[in-house]
Specification:
Structural class: alpha/beta
Strand order of the largest sheet: 1-9-8-5-4-2-3
Order of helices and strands: HHEHEHEHEHEEEEEHHHEEHHEH
CATH architecture of the largest domain: 3-Layer(aba) Sandwich
Low-confidence stretches: none
Length: 371
């Protein structure tokens, strides 16, 4: 039985009757850019996350770029980020005028560690980008005090964690509640994905929120009046309409992902060759990815693909070893935990519409490989 890594067609079939009227409303009104659906989506995401100022933009990458540009980085200014993440994290730092400084990760959660952040801070450091990877949050209760002590901004890259929470001092905390800004991506493969690109910025700072709102609209709050040079990073109304429909299902979809992850955890408990992912006890994971570690990763990947089972490597080459960052002077061995992850990680299907039969197929193929 073929098992795709992700099945967006199956998802569409479950919500078709809700999505098509929402799209028709936008089409009949012919209001395609920054229509009322965008403001409605911003309000809904603010309510979900408990972060009062939500600013929609054109992509998850722009959601990172605009807050970094708001810092007015100067040549030589450094921004700390993990090396084990999607390229946009570091690309946004570079395009905002900063110098990425890469830090190592925790071998269990794959998230940047407070110790690595502290060790990377220099007099030139201006900000920290904390990536909440694969669906669970980094320890913000330890990172935020480090940033405050050094006077640093904290950008929380939450592209993979919409709906994820962390229990801090007895209170459930979302990305954006402790950092300067948190970002979301609505790329189609995300837990809450549009039918194209889209992103959002979240902040508790009203003044910063207003500025980010201007930056996405060419730097002006009023049409044809520009307080600064900004960007064209508006969210399409059609994307917002799709996301509003999908948002109604997000909690149930995340619950389904958690159930699928629990199935895998039980199934791999007696397979010593497979190291399943682990959840920080303080986190409520949303399982954007279910990522195992296997020493013979490439051979297992080939085995699964031969049987029609989708899988993928996130990420095969860490950021500090990317050719475009060779000028920064990192060499193999510089970030050993990141590089060990690069050689062993493999992500398996965990999308909400996955059936038990699909999962049994995946587990059976892995058990066959492991002997």
């Amino acid at each position: 039985m073929p098992v795709p890594l992700l099945d967006l067609v199956a998802q569409y079939q479950t919500i078709r009757d809700e999505i098509e009227p929402a799209l028709r409303s936008v089409i009949e009104r012919q209001g395609f850019v920054m229509g009322p659906e965008v403001a409605e989506l911003e309000a809904a995401i603010a309510a979900l996350t408990g972060v009062p100022h939500a600013i929609a933009c054109a992509s998850g990458t722009d959601a990172l770029l605009l807050p970094l540009r708001a810092l007015a980085l100067q040549p030589g200014d450094e921004v700390i980020a993990p090396a084990f993440t999607f390229f946009a994290t570091a690309g946004a730092i570079h395009n905002a005028g900063g110098t990425p400084v890469f830090a190592d990760i925790d071998p269990v959660t794959f998230n940047i560690t407070p110790e690595a952040i502290e060790a990377a801070i220099t007099p030139r450091t201006r900000a920290i980008v904390v990536v909440h990877l694969f669906g669970q949050m980094a320890p913000m209760e330890r990172i935020a005090p480090i940033a405050a002590r050094h006077g640093l901004a904290v950008i929380e890259d939450g592209a993979q964690t919409i709906g994820a929470r962390r229990l801090i001092d007895g209170t459930w905390t979302h990305p954006g509640q402790l950092g300067t800004v948190a970002t979301l991506s609505f790329f189609p493969t995300k837990n809450l994905g549009g039918w194209g690109d889209g992103g959002m910025m979240l902040t508790t700072d009203a003044e910063l929120g207003a500025r980010l709102g201007r930056l996405r609209l060419h730097g002006g709050a009023k049409q044809y009046h520009h307080d600064e040079v900004g960007f064209n990073s508006r969210l399409d109304s059609l994307q917002a309409a799709v996301l509003l429909v999908k948002l109604r299902h997000l909690s149930a979809w995340n619950d389904a992902r958690r159930a699928h992850a629990a199935y895998y955890q039980d199934a791999f408990a007696d397979m010593p060759a497979v190291c399943p992912p682990r959840v920080d006890d303080a986190n409520e994971h949303i399982w954007h990815q279910y990522t195992i570690r296997v020493e013979r990763r490439d051979a297992l990947m080939a085995h699964l693909k031969d049987r029609g089972i989708g899988c993928a490597i996130y990420y095969p080459l860490p950021l500090h070893l990317q050719p475009c960052f060779a000028h920064l002077g990192y060499a193999p061995g510089a970030l050993p935990v990141t590089e060990a992850a690069m050689r062993t990680v493999l992500s398996l299907p965990v999308y909400p519409e996955l059936t038990e039969a699909h999962q049994a197929e995946v587990v059976g193929a892995i058990r066959e490989f492991c002997g």
